[in-house]
Amino acid sequence: EEQASQEAAHTLAAVEAAKVWDGASDIGESPYLTRKGVQPYGVRFAEGGWLLVPARDASGKIWSVQSIAPNKPASGPEKLFTKGGRKSGLWHWCGDPAGAAVLLIAEGYATAASLHEATGRPVAVAWDVGNLAHVAKALRNQYPAALVVLCGDDDQETQSRTTRNPGREAATKAANTVRGIAVFPENLPEGGTDFNDLHQARGLQAVRQIVDGAIDSHESHQAAPRAAQSSKAGNHSQSARRERIEPQNAGGVERFQVIDGDGVYYTPPGDDGGRPRKVCGVLRVVGLARDAHDNQAALLLEFVTQFGKVRRWLMPLSMLAGDGNAYRTALLSQGFMTPTDGRRRAWLTEYLQSRDPESLDLVRHVPRVGWAGRCYVLPNETLGSNANGESVIFHSEAGIEANFNQRGTLENWISNLSRYAIGNSRAAFAVATAFAGPLLAWAPGTTGGGIHYTGQTSIGKTTCFLLAASVWGKGTEKDPDSYMQKWRATSNGLEYQGEQHNDCTLILDELGQMDAGDAGNAAYMLADGMGKTRGKGAGGLRPKPTWRLLFLSSGELTLAQHMETVGKKMKGGQEVRLIPLPTEVKEGSALETFHEFANGHELSGWVQGHAARCYGVAGRAWLEYLVGETEGLSVALRERMDAIEAQIVPAGASGQVKRGGRRFALIAAAGEMATAAGLTGWPEGESVRAAHTCFDAWLTLRGGAGSSEKTNMLRQVRSFLEANGEGRFTYWHRASDDRVAKTLNKAGVRRMLNADGDPIKTNSQHKAEYGEEMH
């Protein structure tokens, strides 16, 4: 009965927590965050500077909300949970845990935020020592393959008084429970207990060295036994003339052999002296793969197609069920001929199932492109490597249409395309935005979102976008191979595009092709990086589509204007998610300079021709540079962004403008970093100049650096006065005059002013000002 009563209380508290959460804003200011020196991650803001942190379970349901006061109260707690709410086994993420090889757990929000900013790893907020073990167990169940790291507090002051150190004891116990590791801050300032105290006293570098050092030490100890076991088992070279595949029979006869240039052969039991039978062409099993949760197991197969190309394919182990028709169909569709008779089909299935896991490379597959630890995963290759040496590859049942293609050389791209962005703020800003996509993951506190190039047709918006598209792929229009996409899509289609451009930059042309009633929600969804939860046909839920990206958009109308065509009004949150940028910089053109060309039309034609012939090389070179610079990348990027933000964002700007300014700072920083890496051919400072110019243009369009809601209210009042000033406002001095026609639907009164703005009250004043008496 007591348990039922508690569950009922938890349910009621969850309803109350949801109301509080839904009524809060994801844009705001928190003195607590300022005091702690960290950024907001998945939190919301309430009136009075209160910070709200949701307490969720594994499904993402909010059971309670932690409210953190803006300042420490003179009496009473600084942090409050929803009354009667559940806390045990709940947590909040700083960072995205999907695909992460290492998960961190900390007690408080500020500590978790410092750890996330220092390491770039996802960190779970467990609230207190009593909840560490509960959260650790829940994460172990949800992410069985991940290393769980308990980043505990070091309660030295408590230990000096009681000989007990609750932070160390609880973290160590929780780590042992889930076969994880515990790590604690060192060289703390006087009175300090946690990693946030260390962050503020010694910097993020000190935090990262301790945490990453502990992880590297653990992984090196884990790798040593595996290496010895692998050496003992013996790996067989793929280049060998004959490759033995387990199992053998009792006499040691090799049942399966792969002969280079020929195929897979099988010796049936009882026919040890006979001639091996050919099963199929050369088909090697080179890896055993699984997803981040150790599910979706698959074999990595390598074969030569009928077209003479070597190809690799992840075959789900589930395809081996039944008669194997599923995997044979898939192989045939890729150009590999499979057996037609029943016996050889059975042998092929046995060959695939007889793999020796110890002789195979372990591979992690991820469903989207982008960062997987310190690797960057592309559809056909993975750049960089993780500390544990584990290979990571892309695999999605939906395939890929992001068109990360390459042609030409970097030198040609710079000389024939990139250099024409110099002196052209909109073009340079678009190219810098293309480079900025992969940096979003390393920019703590910076959310995804878009930049919308708006202006009349044929002024050069598409030229800017073709330049940007050529960073990653083919820069063409109306071409299925083009990297540039169209807004003309359903919400499901945009979710797919979001996933396939994860940790990159999505380029969407012609907002006008999107239904005006859906455009606002679509922009909101792309910026927030999360699609809808959907059910499976056989029951249960499909994995929720998620992504992290920047996107470029274009259209003749702004998002607000497009929505107004169907009577909808845009909210401030939607504006900052898709920031409108006026594209026209001089009459009829988005280009300030045409370089050696006579006009913008000639320059646009040049860009169109070369973006279709030289593309993708700059993006790949950029990723190669970044995977070699991940150590300290977050700190270096943040410092660069802080300096740029201070330069371009005016003092006293609203929270919306500051949030937009952070995105402009990221884009500017990306362009400068790419320039320093030798990838653009631009002079130093070109990217910052372009971003500053574009940021100022946005502020001019929105009417200043204040809140957009306030600006819109003032615009509405002005529009009303302009439309109704004559008809619905009575002259002050004639309000009681019976000889004047009555004002219908009176909205107020109006008064005449002199040149100094003072009211005219008498005929003599009116005559002095206007030369005649008042009527």
In a few lines, what is going on in this structure?
It contains 24 helices and 28 strands.
Which features would summarize this protein structure in a list?
775 residues, alpha/beta, Dna Topoisomerase Vi A Subunit, Chain: A, domain 2, Rossmann fold, 5-stranded mixed sheet, 24 helices, 28 strands
Describe the 3D structure:
This protein has 775 residues and is an alpha/beta fold. It has four domains: 2-225, Dna Topoisomerase Vi A Subunit, Chain: A, domain 2 (3-Layer(aba) Sandwich); 242-366, no CATH class; 410-633, Rossmann fold (3-Layer(aba) Sandwich); 725-770, no CATH class. It is 38% helix and 17% strand. It has 24 helices and 28 strands. It has a five-stranded mixed β-sheet, sandwiched between helices. The protein has a five-stranded mixed β-sheet with strand order 16-15-14-17-21, with no helix packed on it. Helix 4 (132-142) packs parallel to helix 6 (166-177), helix 12 packs parallel to helix 13 and helix 13 (461-469) runs parallel beside helix 18 (600-611). The protein starts with a helix and ends in a 5-residue tail after the last helix. 42% of the residues are buried.
